[in-house]
Amino acid sequence: MSDQRLSAPSALRNREPILAVLRDALPASGLVLEIASGSGEHVVHFAAALPGLTFQPSDPTAEALASIAAHAGDSGLPNIRPPLQLDAAAADWPLKAADAIICINMIHIAPWSAAEGLIAQAGRILPGGGVLCLYGPYRRPGRELEPGNLAFDESLRSRNPEWGLRELDAVAALAAASGFAAPEVIEMPANNLSLVFRRG
C-alpha cells in the first residue's frame, strides 16, 4: 500500500511558533476544529502538545484527508478525530459546535469567499468567548509589503486572480460583523502574523 502521508516543509518550520500562540489562546479543554488541515502535520503536533484538547481536522480534498488520517493513525494519539471533508466556503458545515477554530495559511490560497465562509461559520458555531486563530501573511494599513511577501502575493495572483494576501482590516471587519472583538495581532517569523479573535 502506498504511503499517503504528505509533508509540508512550511509546517515543520512554523509549527513551534504557532504552538506557542495556541498554548496561550486556546482553552484548557474542549474541541478544536482545524480548517484546511492540509498534510495533517500541524494537527498531530498540536494534539501531542495539548492533550487536554480534542482536535477535529478537516480539508476539502481527498488527498489531504488521506494524509491527515495517515499521520494521525501513525501518531496513535487518542485526541484526534477522523478528518472531516469540509469546504470553508460552504453554506453548511458538517460540525455544528466547537470551542475553538484554527486555520493556518488558508485564506490567501483560496477565494475571498472561503474567508467569508470561515468567519461567518465561526460566528455561528463558537460559543461566547470562543477563539478563532488565523495564521499567515497579511497586508497591513500604512505598511509596504515586505519583499518576500510582495513576491509571494504576485505569485499567488498569477496562479489564480482570486488568491492573494488579504487586508488585515478587511478580515477584522468580517470578524466584527460575525460578533468577534478586534483581533490580538501577534508578530510571527518570516513576516507572518497570528490573529486571535474572541467571540463576544
TrEMBL record:
Question: Which residue windows are transmembrane per the record?
Answer: none
- Top-rank taxon, per record: Bacteria
Coiled-coil annotated residue ranges, if any: none
Q: Name one Pfam family in it.
A: DUF938
**InterPro entries in the cross-refs:** DUF938, SAM-dependent_MTases_sf
PANTHER family assigned to the protein according to its UniProt record, in alphabetical order: UPF0585 PROTEIN CG18661
Give the protein's recorded name. DUF938 domain-containing protein
* Protein source organism: Bosea caraganae
Organism ancestry: Bacteria, Pseudomonadati, Pseudomonadota, Alphaproteobacteria, Hyphomicrobiales
